[in-house]
């Protein structure tokens, strides 16, 4: 079983698949926009598009039009003034992409994973071939995984790993900090966010990162504070180098 899905979520999807097989219908509803979604074939732009996609032709077309233009910027890592990491992002966080992320993160539309993995793959292609030797997903809070039924970042890490032949190494754990902490971060300013994240990401003793060249992976970078806190924790636990990739970056 895919480790990025909870067993409850995986069974629910299997059950839906069986129900669709018993009671086939020509049209279902698009998981993104709610319009009728006819089954669409595989896209030439990203692999493994599900045959029973719940996306409509309009949204698939919008996805195909979504421009991937890899950008790089330097990010200051906490507690090390001279230490910066390179962050690569593939798409802008515009209104359409925001809708995609909402569907992917909160509404169970894991059909979007191949699209975001395709964006992350473009970021990976911008790196030196041997720059990294493992993929470290930014850990998602356990309560969110339970609530949603899947770990969306881990899902992307595993999908990218299949394309680039690198192992996924969950080298970080996220320490729970109570209800207020796990609320959405998008609107918070960088300094507040940085203070909140102090001590939240800790090394996973079962997956040591000593001497490794980590490719830190997240879905979206907003203030950059999450990536900085994770990179800091990776360096503190002995990582040789850290490079970050995110599908989208908020400007
Ligand atoms: Zn649609």
Descriptive account of the structure:
This is ComF family protein. Belongs to the ComF/GntX family. It comes from Alicyclobacillus hesperidum. By secondary structure, this protein is an alpha/beta fold. It has one domain: Rossmann fold, CATH 3.40.50. Helix content is 35%, strand content 20%. The protein is built from 8 helices and 9 strands. The chain has helices at residues 7-22, 57-65, 95-106, 113-125, 142-148, 152-164, 190-196, 225-236, and strands at residues 27-29, 36-38, 71-76, 84-92, 134-137, 172-174, 201-203, 213-221, 241-249. A 5-stranded mixed sheet has the order 3-4-9-8-5, with helices on both faces. It has a two-stranded antiparallel ribbon with strand order 1-2. It has a two-stranded antiparallel ribbon with strand order 6-7. Helix 4 (113-125) packs across helix 6 and helix 7 runs parallel beside helix 8 (225-236). The longest helix is centred in the N-terminal third of the chain and has 16 residues, at 7-22. It is globular. The N and C termini lie far apart (37 Å). Residues 179-183 have low confidence and may be disordered. Zinc ion binds at residues 30, 32-33, 35, 55-56, 58-59.
Radius of gyration: 18 Å
- The fraction of residues in strands falls at 15-25%
Largest sheet: 5 strands, mixed
- Biggest sheet strand line-up: 3-4-9-8-5
Spatial gap, N to C terminus: 37 Å
Q: What is the CATH level 1 assignment? A: Alpha Beta
The arrangement of helices and strands along the chain is HEEHEEHHEHHEHEEHE
How would you name the oligomeric state of the polypeptide chains in this document? single chain
Q: Which CATH architecture?
A: 3-Layer(aba) Sandwich
Give the overall shape: globular
Helix content range of the residues, please? 25-40%
**If you consult CATH, what is the topology?**
Rossmann fold
Domain count: the total is 1
Q: What's the overall average pLDDT, rounded?
A: 84
| Contiguous runs where pLDDT drops below 50 for at least 5 residues | 179-183
């Amino acid at each position: 079983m895919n480790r990025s899905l909870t067993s409850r979520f995986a069974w629910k999807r299997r059950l839906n698949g069986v129900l669709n097989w018993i009671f086939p219908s020509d049209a279902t509803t698009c998981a993104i926009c709610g319009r009728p979604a006819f089954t669409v074939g595989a896209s030439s732009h990203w692999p493994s598009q599900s045959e029973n996609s719940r996306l409509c032709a309009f949204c698939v077309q919008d996805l195909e039009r979504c421009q991937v233009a890899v950008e790089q910027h330097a990010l200051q890592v906490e507690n090390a003034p001279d230490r910066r990491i390179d962050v690569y992002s593939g798409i802008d966080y515009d209104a359409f992409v925001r809708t995609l992320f909402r569907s992917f993160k909160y509404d169970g539309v894991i059909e979007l994973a191949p699209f975001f993995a395709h964006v992350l793959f473009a970021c990976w292609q911008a790196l030196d071939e041997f720059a990294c030797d493992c993929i470290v997903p930014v850990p998602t809070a356990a309560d969110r995984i339970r609530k949603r039924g899947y770990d969306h970042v881990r899902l992307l890490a595993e999908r990218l790993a299949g394309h680039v032949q690198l192992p996924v190494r969950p080298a970080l754990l996220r320490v729970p900090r109570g209800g207020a902490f796990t609320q959405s971060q998008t609107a918070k300013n960088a300094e507040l966010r940085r203070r909140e994240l102090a001590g939240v990401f800790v090394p996973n003793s079962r997956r040591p990162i000593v001497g490794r060249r980590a490719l830190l992976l997240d879905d979206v970078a907003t203030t950059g504070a999450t990536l900085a806190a994770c990179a800091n924790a990776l360096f503190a636990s002995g990582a040789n180098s850290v490079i970050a990739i995110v599908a989208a970056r908020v400007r």
